[in-house]
Amino acid sequence: MKVLLFGSGAREHALYEAVLKSSLIKKEDIYFAQTGIFAQRNIIEFINYHQLAEKSRDIGITLLIVGPEEPLAQGICDIFMQFDIKTIGANKYWAQLESSKSFAKEFMHKFEIKTAKYITLDSPSAINNALASFSNPPVIKADGLAAGKGVYLPETFDEAKIAAFEFLAGKFGKASERIILEQRLAGRELSVFSLWDGKTLLSFPPACDFKKLSDGDNGENTGGMGSAFPCRLSDFEANEIDNYLSKLENALKKSKADFCGVIYSGLIMCDDGVYVLEYNMRFGDPEVQSVLDSFCGDILDVFLKMTQGKLNEVKISFSEKPSYCVVLASSGYPVSPRKGFEILNLEFAQKCKVKVFFAGVKKIENKFYTDGGRVLSLVKTGENALVDIYNVAGKIKFSGKIYRKDIKLR
User: Fold this and answer.
1) Torsion (CA) 54, 307, 296, 328 in degrees, nearest 10
2) What is the C-alpha separation between 101 and 141, in angstroms, rounded?
3) Residues 58-75: pLDDT tens digits?
4) β pairing state of 63-66 and 3-6
5) What pLDDT score was predicted for residue 1?
């Protein structure tokens, strides 16, 4: 078989390493649609998704694995399916669970899945009346995809009003032409990955994501500064999550959801149970780095079973030891990260058996340079894994390096 992996960040690097472990494929039969530090060969150049699918068919690609959200929202899987190429990724319709907050809210409301009270707006003139219906400043969210940056947590109603106006005025382009005002919930957040084959929902244990930029959950929201897997759950929490996942599976079945892919449930555990904060229709970064490092088995075989509608036959297991991911970012992230600084001492990670997944990095003449906000993901599984990860995090050098020092199981 031949596989095409779409995406070039740390998530896709982790997926590549996981697929590479499979006995079902050889290294030379893994192809890439985007260049990256880990993708230096078998790159398929393309102008549009139709051309990419056509070239993939001619090469003999049998499976497309999509990492990022944008190509899903643009319908890449629909196009590949027209060429009889199996896909791990939602079609354009179901990608709306991520690409449209209002679509996701309507889905949850229809199937009585608990989510925060919300109001959808597309006109600045309605902001004052909408804010008046909340007892506390609501969360402001762009309805569409905003590269993980379209959420603002105001402390006052004045801040909420300003943010709502800025969003609707085009702060995130088309993504914020419509916005969601959402009741702010209190509790701990959990990330659950589920696989869906059109008939069966198979879910992984929850992971912990660290969204805030700085220690103690302070600073700006980011795409994620680290993760730990699996989360510790009380009996109440475990039961709540099981009940939620059963509801989600029933909702997908009743909706006849016709896709083969991943659903990420961003959950928050409140006093009265679990609520859904958001859906993503792909593996989340950085959670998947720690989850896949803990995964026991052949992930490519699982993907193939998905495409055959046989998830009901799959049993998954994970290491009994915890797994962690710590993200090294560049100063200025998430607004305006600094770029172009050489990264030194990467070889030290091998000595500590810490995996390095590349994200915002470019390679020039065998030297590595920062080229984005989140630069590297440092990953390891084991009782003392965090000690090794933080040892490596201290040794790796580049100008403007920032990272959280409080990643842990919680």
Assistant:
1) 40
2) 8
3) 999 999 999 999 999 999
4) parallel
5) 92
CA distances to 178, 321, 379, 395 from 388, rounded to whole Å, are: 45, 15, 9, 11
Return the residue matching tokens 């996981």. 18
Q: Where would I find the H helices in 255-363?
A: 287-294, 299-307, 348-351
Rounded CA gap, 104 and 116, in Å? Answer: 12
Nearest-angstrom CA–CA distance, 399 and 312: 49
- Split at pLDDT 50, 70, 90, the class of 110 is very high
- Residue 383 CB coordination number (10 Å): 9
What's the pLDDT score for residue 36?
80
Cis, bond preceding 205 (omega within 30 deg of 0): no
pTM: 0.95
Distance separating alpha carbons of residues 288 and 12, to the nearest angstrom: 9
Please say if the pLDDT value at position 95 is more than 80. yes
Per DSSP bridges, beta strands 273-280 and 261-270 are: antiparallel
Contact 4, 63 (CB under 8 A): yes
pLDDT the model gives residue 192: 98
| 3-state class (DSSP) for residue 54 | helix
